[in-house]
Amino acid sequence: MNKILKKEHFSPNVLHFEVEAPQIAKTRKAGHFVLVKVGEKGERIPLTIASSDPVKGSISLVVQRVGVSSAKLCALNEGDYITDLVGPLGKATHIEKYGTVVCAGGGVGVAPLLPIVEAMKKAENRVITVLAARSKELVILEEQMRANSDEVIIMTDDGSYGKQGLVTAGIEEVLLREKVDLCVTVGPAVMMKFVALLTKKYDIPTMASLNTIMVDGTGMCGACRITVGGKIKFVCVDGPEFDAHEVDFDEMQMRLSSYKELEIKAMQQYTETTAI
Amino acid sequence: MNPDTNTKRNEPWREELRKATKNKERTDIPRVHMRELPADYRNKNNEEVNSGLTKEDALKEAKRCLDCPSPSCTNGCPVGIDIPQFVKNIERGEILEAAKIVKQTSALPAVCSRVCPQEKQCEAECIYAQKMGKEAVAIGYLERFAADYERDSGQMAVPECAPSNGIKVAVVGSGPAGLSFASDMAKRGYKVTVFEALHEIGGVLKYGIPEFRLPNSIVDVEIEILKKLGVEIITNCIVGKTITFEELQAQEYKALFVGSGAGLPRFMHIPGENLVGVMSSNEYLTRINLMGASRDGDTPVLSGKNVAIIGGGNTAMDAVRTAKRLGAERAMIVYRRSEAEMPARVEEIKHAKEEGVEFMPLHNPIEYIADEKGRVKQMRLQKMTLGEPDASGRRSPVEIPGAIDTIDVDTVIVSIGVSPNPLVPSSIRNLDVSKWGTITVNDGMQSSIPAIFAGGDIVRGGATVILAMGDGRRAAAAMDEYLQKLC
Ligand SMILES: Cc1cc2nc3c(=O)[nH]c(=O)nc-3n(C[C@H](O)[C@H](O)[C@H](O)COP(=O)(O)OP(=O)(O)OC[C@H]3O[C@@H](n4cnc5c(N)ncnc54)[C@H](O)[C@@H]3O)c2cc1C
Ligand SMILES: Cc1cc2nc3c(=O)[nH]c(=O)nc-3n(C[C@H](O)[C@H](O)[C@H](O)COP(=O)(O)OP(=O)(O)OC[C@H]3O[C@@H](n4cnc5c(N)ncnc54)[C@H](O)[C@@H]3O)c2cc1C
Ligand code: SF4
Ligand code: SF4
Ligand code: FES
Fold first, then answer.
1. Minimum CA–CA partner of A264 in chain B
2. Is B381 within 8 Å of B406 (Cβ atoms)?
3. pTM of model > 0.90
4. pLDDT tens-digit profile of B36-59?
């Protein structure tokens, strides 16, 4: 049981939680994630550790409400307890001074991108963040990204905010204009696929942080498996970060859709019975 | 043989009991049948299939045992339970006494009696099977009877503990190895803390073996006793991640027992194995048994109409019978050798067949084919025949050139074994591991680092509950000796 010390809205569907977890706060590194389960019968969902305070013994999480399990977490308040929380999991991000780093995020990838942006900035990189969303209302964490980036480029599909176009257009603009040493991308599999294709063309090393489906998070089940460079990898223990040019994103997208119908049905049921 | 056993055999009551019934009369009694739920009822729910023996049946079965002067059955039990001693106590109606005897050697009798492959262990060595060409004494059933009887009597004895010696020891993992180790160390007066990575206690007993074979309540009773012994259990804590070995040392833990199991699922690396609907048995069973998928849990599980399980071990049988219970029209076992080579317990194979599971021995998958959404819709199977015996002593499967079948499937569960989870070994510097990734230990289960002991599947690869438990006990004895010299 982990107590929620602070809850704050970044936007209607993106929340920031500070959670008591003294042991994890001590050992975690940037890029690590936790698995969170709300309720005895809850699902175990992975969430990146956004930051930690070892003195206070707390970690913070940035959660986007997308389905039932993230909604259940978002429904908790300060003083409530998260039933189960385990971590830190995964391999830590390799953070160093690369030079100029482009961080590209979209959809469910924006929240987990934030700690990477912060860490890259702290390591004295020039950080250019590209955020993509379908329309203005769906742009999240802009303020937090601006606070940690040298530049933020916003792309919307419908042009209702920032520039019109896909995330790749925003990245290409930077690539054409200046020397980039590393690209980091987190988001839906299709998005990462096209980012990888683009940066491959320009020969820019690219790291993708993969958000596959997980169950245990310790290498026991294989639910999170994907193909990287022709080999099976488990995202929870071998990742979550991989060389984007080696990842089979089509397969990842297909695997992410495994439970789509069940998830949509569950969310409908949940919203019918719960006032969000 | 254990000299203790002999002296007990000479106790007056046992001599009398032996004389009371002639051997001929004993051997004429047919082996008892386990009461079980009807197949077409049980394959739709999660109730325990085996209902246990009645007291009458148990007493009758106990009578079959000849109380042999040098009982070969005990040699077949990996932990050397004094089988005739407990069986004869059942015969004379002292069931609680029988339970006590079993518990002197086994920390989890209610569990082992349900899941031990008796036909390969204790019962295989029984004189009935060895010399008389008859069915062995039903040692497993009798052991279960004694354990259940004790539990139901509400008189479950909490074992006595030595006075606390104040020495702290840590355990990684709450599977049978970790639990039995913890129990023995607590009894010796140590302050034991068990760290478990998952949110549930029990290891494979909880997340792997289904309720219909081993109810969680049975495991929970054992865990309660452990807590009464003063063992502290911390869930959601991964040793090597949440807390390191060095930190444990800094917190004054004087030694560590690693019972982290063999949790890493193996795949076959054939085309289509990452399709939607193809998963490891660990994933399938964890979703259902640990997370409550298909019942009251938020976690979903894919389980279709045509479900194929690849493999022939206990895990495969558990998965296939689970698929049947979740409504599969065809639940199939696809196994590359013949049925005789299947490693599963004989009873599980029998139960699976009764429940309507189809067996496809001598078939090996070579490819999975997807529908337009990426979900598996068919599998290609290479037909096999049996060749010469291989290293395992079993006849090896050989392909029949050109003999390939294609069948419709919408869910495939790969259950071809597990490897040791590298998480703990890789987080401890200078810990010796074998080329298979198992932790290397000496006879006392001590690793290359003197303060670290290990046992169960992390040492043996995928093995059995009773072996894991035996390792835990052996490690406890050896660690006690090590710490007594040290402290
Ligand atoms: C290593 C890792 C770190 C993560 N870090 C964060 C984080 O810091 N903050 C955060 O908000 N989320 C993060 N995620 C994603 C988060 O785990 C999922 O959003 C969450 O599991 C969704 O659960 P749910 O039951 O609410 O939604 P579901 O019911 O599972 O899904 C609802 C809808 O969202 C889509 N969806 C769900 N998960 C994903 C996904 N991973 N990728 C693409 N689409 C998806 C589904 O297709 C479905 O349509 C991370 C994932 C991983 C693997
Ligand atoms: C489905 C299935 C059916 C089976 N059926 C039978 C049967 O009928 N009969 C039989 O004898 N055997 C059976 N087995 C095998 C038997 O269950 C195992 O051999 C036995 O459980 C091994 O015990 P263990 O204590 O070594 O490990 P496990 O039971 O695997 O327990 C290990 C525990 O350690 C935890 N852990 C791992 N790493 C860490 C870490 N770093 N920090 C903290 N905790 C950690 C794990 O979460 C787990 O709970 C079956 C196995 C499966 C999967
Ligand atoms: S523990 Fe297993 S092998 Fe030993 S007597 Fe009991 S059932 Fe037989
Ligand atoms: S070998 Fe069989 S008959 Fe003899 S003591 Fe053991 S169980 Fe009884
Ligand atoms: S989540 Fe189970 S192996 Fe990665």
1. B300
2. yes
3. yes
4. 999 999 999 999 999 999 999 999
